[in-house]
PPM-type phosphatase domain-containing protein
Amino acid sequence: MSRALGDLQYKNPVNAVEDQNLTTRARRASSSSASVCGNFLSNDPFTSRRILQSNRRYLLVIVSDGVSDLTDDTALIQHVMKLSMRGMRANDIAQEVVSSTASRPKSDNATCVVAMLDGQYS
């Protein structure tokens, strides 16, 4: 994912389409939608802030499309929670998610980060 951040061809799809040697039909299709095209990638981060309650535990699971394209979000979170309740550490859970995803047919690059958080007292 980070490789493409510096590739200008992905930053402006209109220019990328014009630079490529496409068929006439593809050129017509892209030029008709050029006014509604935006950037494929953005280097502007999306952030949000959450206040954690001190009496709760939280789970943060970050995955690449190699995992999310093959797994339902709810099923993934339930699986991670089940492994956590069995005493598995976050790092081992992430490795298990990646291993099980990578063994499936049509798997892509799979990345998973699991963080288990406790609420903090003010």
Summary: The chain has two domains: 2-36, 57-118.
